[in-house]
Amino acid sequence: MTARKPLCLFACVVFACVFNQATAVAQAKKTPEPGKKNAVATGDAAKAPAKPGAPAQAANKDGTIDVVLPTPDGWQIHCTWFESAAGRESACAILLTATDGLGEKDARNRRVWQPTALALQKAGFAVITVDLRKHGDSIPVSPTGEPLAMKISNADYPLMASSDLETVKAFLMEQHKAEMLNIRKLSIVAMGSSALVATAFTIEDWAKTPYPDAPTIDQRTPRGQDVRSLIMYSPNTTVRGLNTTALLKTLKGLPVPVYVIAAKDNKDDARHADKVFKAIELKGDQFKDSRKLLLTPGQTHAEAYLEGQLAAATQKDIIDFLTRNVKDLEAPWTDRTDRRTK
């Protein structure tokens, strides 16, 4: 998909407006120390948390790797890494569950993505499934191993984008540097409230200016503009701390394919999906495969698309959209190291 217009200062300004208030709230509070008792949850991993700035890793029997990524503000984000055999030209995908808190009905962790992630891996993608802060294994535990009761605050959702997903991207960038994937072919598939978190992160990523390591912009090494596609299942447009209108208005102007899926008989989900799509829709046949809305029969919600009889069709739909809009992009692997550090 080609850009309708160049990325400009508008994206940066809107992003700053969206995030400044929530960031101020977060900074005004003392950051908790959620990582002290947390540990890699599966496999034979050590029970000690990761050292600051260094991921802990544990290999699973299926060849996947559980990693714990420490964020700058003290959280440990639990992920599962599915390495691609296709090497440095592999497209990559971040898979997110809904982020509504442990007490919510049908709350899931990243394990629900396992079959879909393996299908994407088989199709040549590098994949990482993520439990954002206060969700899944990224909830701190008590000395007896029980998850601590934690409420989602207004500051948490912006920080999932600006801290958690930035930390995940930093991990993927290390894999890019090791020539295990192509960060220029990055996608995010998100459920429920995570759809807006992914949108906020995408806008932040596109607002990054290149390193000042060459005389002209086109010669400089990019730091962002890597998220090339978003898929949203049952997107929730009412997410505390995030300005839905501003985010979707900015997303509309970015050269990022967006696919929105919800159940037409689930009135709330259909309403939210329609709101998202109307805000980001681009008219014209050239956008019919890159800005899409699908309303499915029934009342399926979010992660339920990944299970039961719908699982195979969902996997195929995700793979087809990401292959067409990201994997097949003409975006060869390039060195992303700031030339001034060489």
Please characterize this protein's 3D structure.
This protein is an alpha/beta fold. The protein has one domain (9-330): Rossmann fold, CATH 3.40.50. Helix content is 30%, strand content 15%. It contains seven helices and nine strands. The protein has a nine-stranded mixed beta sheet with strand order 1-2-3-5-4-6-7-8-9, with helices on both faces. Helix 4 (194-206) links the parallel strand 6 (186-191) and strand 7. The longest helix is centred in the middle third of the chain and has 22 residues, at 156-177. The chain is globular, with a radius of gyration of 19 Å.
Write a short abstract of this structure.
It is built from 7 helices and 9 strands. The protein is an alpha/beta fold and 342 residues long.
Spell out the key features of this protein.
342 residues; alpha/beta; Rossmann fold; 30% helix
The end-to-end distance, rounded to whole angstroms, is 33 Å
CATH class: Alpha Beta
Average pLDDT rating: 85
The CATH topology annotation reads as Rossmann fold
Largest sheet: 9 strands, mixed
| Domain module count | 1
Q: Gyration radius, to the nearest Å?
A: 19 Å
Helix segment count? 7
Chain-wise SSE layout:
Blueprint lengths: L8 H20 L27 E4 L5 E6 L5 E7 L9 E5 L17 H9 L3 E6 L24 H22 L8 E6 L2 H13 L20 E7 L10 H9 L5 E6 L3 H14 L10 E6 L14 H17 L15
Parallel strand pairs: 4-5, 4-6, 6-7, 7-8, 8-9
Antiparallel strand pairs: 1-2, 2-3, 3-5
Helix pairs in contact: 1-4, 2-7, 3-4, 4-5
